[in-house]
Write a structure and sequence with these properties.
Radius of gyration of chain A: 31 Å
Number of strands of chain B: 3
Shape of chain A: elongated
Oligomer: heterodimer
Bound molecules: zinc ion
Strand content of chain A: 15-25%
CATH class of one domain in chain B: Mainly Alpha
Strand order of the largest sheet of chain B: 2-3
Shape of chain B: flat
Distance between the termini of chain B: 36 Å
Helix content of chain A: 40-55%
CATH architecture of one domain in chain B: Orthogonal Bundle
Structural class of chain B: alpha+beta
CATH topology of one domain in chain B: Histone, subunit A
Structural class of chain A: alpha+beta
Largest sheet of chain A: 9 strands, mixed
Distance between the termini of chain A: 91 Å
Chain lengths: 477, 95
């Protein structure tokens, strides 16, 4: 029998706000355990939450970018469950009136276009982190992440295979990063995906029983988990067994999913309207303002780089693969007006330096103004290509002042025509045979004389100047 | 809605509470009277009435997105029955 896989995704992204959703604790990743915690986010009795305005702004922008309708009258609801990662014993979320609904994200897989429906997007708070302590067989709780704002983006069950899922996640990731609403780092947990999957015979309209796989932490693992889980469900059914509706965990090491211990009643969240937070009204003006503030998407940037700045499709793709690179490219190009030069330096030298130093593009800290100055010096012939690379590497590693570095290292090209004159005179008198050869029409001899002069000047003369002076002197000999 | 032993046990489970037989009987009586009281509302026709979640006619109470200082960890962990390595320590829950 031929089977069809049906997949829906729930993607959680942590928003790139400075502070948490209901208190002013920082959202910074990686602090010492429980150092980004206050009475509000640790759920002490008597405290009141106050909503971070940026969370609503980011949600509206995300909704607009995914073609959603924006809910004008919003409320928060309490999702009650008892688990130590949630000190209040409830999560503030949105059930009845999610902020965005009925959107879509368009993807392309192997040349085929497809529209993936967005059922809804809602705002909520993240939970704390639980770490198993193997020494005492207990659990340790860190609430730094508790109260970090999240968007949950719920798709329609529109995916039919892992490739579509990955294409969607990549598109979503790129969209959110360029919107500036999230950094979407799977490895740091700022983007997480729950995969709902079922199978049915091809042609059947009703859905099969689905399982849910939670918090798989890389695109590659998601892809493998989907392939595995679809195969497992088909095998179950073909063996005459039933697929159970359950939550399964993907085990990266064993390359398999297994059922998590079912917590009976765990699904009874007893939602009710959150009484501690007032409703949110999103006006027409607010939406218009958000629309006006929507930054260029990666796709729009690629098109502009090719059409207006004359880059190749390939280069435009490399530059926009990381927002940090695209922004560096744009700032440096704006200053020096040499987009192709900036592009070459980024796609060549900078990519090499990033991979050699084991860092990532979003962690680099290069002053675009200094980068532009290095390029201007190169274009004007004040330093040569090798020097450009050397100075840029020093800028990458130590944030040097380009002009000062060039001076200290003696990388500046000679502007002293007298010195070039004298050197040419000396080279000509030391190489009478080559002069003779040149006079007899051997162009190769000219190249040799240029080489000798450049060598005598330690490569710091402008080759065009050397060429010009040599031709003049040879012509009058 | 009747509050029977089954419901009480279910609520115990959800709230991770253990009640004595005596407490269960008391909870049954209390919850029944609360439900009866609220049931009065069902006598009203609320067909065209919006559900009210707040008594205040006020919306958009926001904070600017500015990070401030958090509490000292010592203070945060002060009430923890058990702690270790700067964390709250609880019975094993991670599967
Ligand atoms: Zn806090």
């Amino acid at each position: 029998m031929a089977w069809e896989t049906v997949i829906g995704l729930e993607v959680h992204v942590e928003l790139a706000t400075k502070s948490k959703i209901f208190c002013s604790c920082t959202t910074e990743f990686g602090g010492e355990p429980n150092t980004h915690v206050c009475p509000v986010c640790s759920g002490l009795p008597g405290v009141l939450p106050t909503l971070n305005e940026s969370v609503v702004e980011f949600a509206v922008k995300t909704g607009l970018a995914t073609n959603c309708e924006i809910t004008r009258f919003n409320k928060f609801d309490r999702k009650n469950y008892f688990y130590p990662d949630l000190p209040k014993a409830y999560q503030v979320s949105q059930l009845y009136l999610p902020i965005c609904r009925n959107g879509h994200v368009d993807i392309e897989v192997n040349g085929t276009k497809k529209s993936i429906g967005i059922h809804e997007i809602h705002m909520e708070e993240d939970a704390g982190k639980l770490v198993h302590d193997p020494w005492e067989d207990s659990t340790l709780v860190d609430y730094n992440r508790c109260g970090v704002p999240l968007l949950e983006i719920v798709s329609e069950p529109d995916f039919r295979n892992a490739d579509e899922v990955i294409a969607y996640l990549e598109k979503l990731r790129e969209t959110l990063i360029y919107l500036g609403v999230s950094d979407c780092k799977m490895q740091e947990g700022s983007m997480r995906a729950d995969v709902n999957l079922s199978v049915r015979p091809v042609g059947q309209t009703e859905f099969g029983t689905r399982t849910e796989m939670k918090n798989i932490n890389s695109f590659k693992a998601i892809s493998r988990a989907i392939v595995y889980e679809a195969k497992r469900q088909i095998e179950q059914i073909e063996m005459g067994k039933k697929v159970l509706q359950e939550t399964r965990r993907w085990d990266e090491n064993k390359d398999a999913t297994y059922a998590m211990r079912s917590k009976e009643n765990a699904q009874d969240y007893r939602y009710f309207p959150e009484p501690d937070l007032l409703p949110i009204e999103i006006s027409e003006e607010w939406i218009e303002r958000a629309k006006a503030e929507m930054p260029e998407t990666a796709a729009q940037k690629r098109e502009r780089y090719v059409k207006e700045l004359g880059l190749t499709e390939y280069d435009a793709r490399v530059l926009t693969a990381e927002r940090a690179l695209a922004l560096l490219f744009e700032s440096a190009s704006d200053i020096c007006k040499e987009p192709k030069e900036v592009c070459n330096l980024i796609t060549g030298e900078l990519m090499r330096l990033i991979s050699e130093s084991g860092t990532s593009a979003d962690r680099i800290d290069i002053d675009p103004e200094k980068m532009a100055r290095i390029i201007t010096l190169t274009v004007k012939g004040r330093i040569n290509r090798n020097a450009e690379k050397e100075v840029f590497e020093a800028l990458f590693r130590e944030n040097i002042e380009p002009e000062q570095y060039i001076k200290e290292k003696g990388l500046m090209m000679l502007e002293d025509d007298d010195l070039v004159n004298d050197t040419v005179d000396r080279v000509l008198s030391e190489n009478p045979k080559s002069v003779e050869d040149f006079k007899n029409g051997k162009e190769k001899a000219f190249g040799f004389l240029v080489g000798q002069t450049m060598r005598a000047l330690k490569g710091k003369a402008n080759p065009q100047t050397v060429n010009k002076i040599l031709r003049e002197k040879l012509g009058s000999m | 809605m009747t509050i029977d032993n089954k419901l009480i046990e279910y609520l115990e489970e959800l709230s991770r509470l253990r009640l004595t037989e005596e407490e269960k009987e008391k909870a049954k009586a209390d919850l029944s009277s609360i439900i009866n009281y609220v049931d009065k509302l069902n006598e009203l026709d609320t067909e065209n009435t919006e559900a009210m979640s707040h008594p205040f006619d006020y919306t958009n109470n926001f904070r600017k997105d500015e990070a401030g200082s958090s509490f000292d960890r010592e203070l945060i962990l002060m009430n923890a029955p058990q702690k270790k390595n700067g964390c709250f320590r609880v019975p094993k829950t991670v599967e």
